Amino acid sequence: MQNDVLKFITCGSVDDGKSTLIGRMLHDSHMIFDDQVNELKSSSKKYGTTGEDIDFALLVDGLAAEREQGITIDVAYRYFKTEKRKFIVADTPGHIQYTRNMATAASNAQLAVILIDARQGVLAQTKRHSYVVSMLGVKNVIVAVNKMDIVDYDQKIFNDISQDYLAFSKDLGFETVEIIPVSALKGDNICDASQNMSWYKGNSLFSSLETINVAESDNHKQSFRMPVQMVTRPNLDFRGFAGTIAAGSVSVGDEIMSLPSQKTSTVKSIVTFEKEHQSAKTGQAVTITLEDEIDISRGDMLSSVDDQCRTADLFKSKILWMDDTAMVAGRQYIFKSAVSEQVCTIEKPKYLINIENLEHTPSDKLSLNDIGVCEVYLAQKCAYENYTDNRTLGSFILIDRHTNQTVGMGMIEHAMRRSVNVYKQKISITPAERAAQKNQKPCAIWMTGLSGSGKSTVADALEQKLYANNFHTIILDGDNVRHGLNKDLGFTEHDRAENIRRIAEVTKLMMNAGVMVIVSFISPFRSERQLARDIIGADNFVEVHIDTPLEVAEKRDVKGLYKKARDGKIPNFTGIGSPYEPPETPEVRVPTVDVLPDESADKIWDYLEENSFLDR
Amino acid sequence: MMQNTHLDILENEAIHIFREAAEQAENPVMLYSIGKDSSVLLHLALKAFYPAIPPFPILHVDTLWKFKEMIAFRDSIPEKTGMELIVHTNPEGVEKNIGPVTHGSAMHTDIMKTQALKQALDKYGYDLAFGGARRDEEKSRAKERVFSFRNKHHGWDPKNQRPEPWNIYNARKNKGESVRVFPLSNWTELDIWEYIKREEIDLVPLYFAKKRPVIERDGMILMVDDDRLDVQPHETIETKMVRFRTLGCYPLTGGVESSAQNLDEVIEETMSVKTSERSGRAIDQDSNASMEDKKREGYF
Asked: Which fold has domain A5-211?
């Protein structure tokens, strides 16, 4: 297949000369304008490191901080063309802390140019970069052994590096590896064959880039898949499903299935701005109309019927963590793929991959630039393909629910059997019927607050009042539950999250039995309380903040815990060694200073009454 | 079935971006500068949502110093597209009579463009704004994301950008924050021209060479579009065949002498030209990192 455009990334260690190489490529392909050369000459004098020569690196190191520090911080995109091809180059950082940026660039690349400094040979960084591009699915690699001018164009040095690299990379699944000796600074083997290395008979970098037949993804040969981006309804007569075809092709008259609903229909028309088409293929952005009115919305996948797309809600995935704050297992994140955007939780990593030697090491967490294999649980089923089969449909990002930062990128290895084989048993009596029998409305009254704030006392007072009025209630108390159900859990972030998840699930079961549940837990983190709210259902979740200042709670210190924490005997104690995140908008806020427990209970009672939780 | 050419690839990518952004926004808007990139952007928006009309209005920040031909072209857009056009001018700037000739390019651009844009975004509460910026235009833009996050003050933090792998775009934000979206990120100047030709997209006639009244000032050829240019006794108004590679405020936009009167000739000239298109703009020449500084402050 003819490649009209080649997208490639350049990567290498610090000072391998990536930016110089790209600057040289832009220059030699006549993509640099006179005014830019003038600016370059004046910048070279100010910041340059190349003496008499123009410092091409300054051309591409765009951000002011980079020009001053002489390093490439971020992915920069460059565009150039020769007579044979157009090129989109992602110039990526070499520093270890910027692995995430390299992975970002590799995710869209068809080929990688990996730089090696001829004086240094294959370094740990070279291995990291090679592994990351291989993990992201890049199949074609060109290794440019740079700075050959500094090693006197020595053939033996080049041959040794070539052998080292080939030995290291043989298990990375590359389809082609081409190794070229170059000098980006002097221009050897960049555009034309070098006069200084007549011993080298292969391609120059340009001729290789122009002619290489990159392994095209075979997505277009696969069965039809199109994530629905949006529903187009300009008038009552038109209802179209817009999206970009991610695999295969589709024709008018084809039978298709919508997932996860599994409803089927027939393609009535394929619409674009220009005209109606008889068929459309991978990569095209189209709008499809169907013969039948079936319920399809953003987040669904249109699929061929013969080979229907699979759906699952539990995946084994490789995850590259991209945020300064480490991943907390059990905490909720937003999972966003080409198809779906929804809440997920991630189990603690099965192992981390050491990307210098590919060994597996155990770990409880994923920190910045770690790559780990984890199980990802989704709230709802989602259509997918494995990443090795389809990069578009097998990839996802993870987003922090509070900062909205993109914190991780993931590749689906495969769905897990558990979610495929565990079916929900159908039960005849419904939760609503059980509640009706008790003549009450089940709900969760979730009390959060510092240790010693008075949660248990208020919970007790509230339960007495409810009991006296014939409501069926139960109290789940933090200390008590930790003696039984959760006695295997400690106080790390992961264990706290798991503690809350179990309590929320138990609360939900009891609510299904028709009971009003009063939960009295410190539950210090917003994200975990959000998790509880999501599991239980926001409509029946009443968050009560028992709002006692730390000084007051510490002064009370009924259990003597604050003293122990201050003495360093209890690590991670909330308020001392671990933060308490107060609710921003609790349903009820109960200050307890100079207030009797009964008055606090009345305040909660009033809220319940006003919001129909006590209706009979 | 036809092969996807590089223009098809760029077009499909832009349509995908438009749809993703519009679906994730509560109150989107498209920034429109009347230039060739804006014309391509508008054309792609119409394609992305067809047969529906794009679900957002067009916003033009009018500095009151645009070429007259630009304004006439702009005012024809609602009828051609069915989209709503919103024009905003900074009232404080009008009150103080701010202009590039009297106050200089830096102050004029800040008050009438950067501040005016922020005012308009705040006034209408837009949470997502499409723009026509391309990564090949300028060095700091080469590193900007397709979905580019802005804080409550519309500022851009280049060191704290969200990673953007594959084509999965994260437009989540908190109240008051916003996202700029650039569907043309991967287009080059030549791609824009080739696409305009292929799709027969309408442009402001200023892009084509014509005899125009001009003066030379600070090494730039400026068109005498009205009498506010304050032509000095030593400056002579000449009639020359000129055209413009980019369009902005007429006293800040240098033309080039050219004989290219149609698209083919413009494309040929673009391919052989030796200076970058922004070289005709006064705004970039203040300092090496000037565009980055302006973007941090909220300039598009």
From this structure: Rossmann fold (3.40.50)
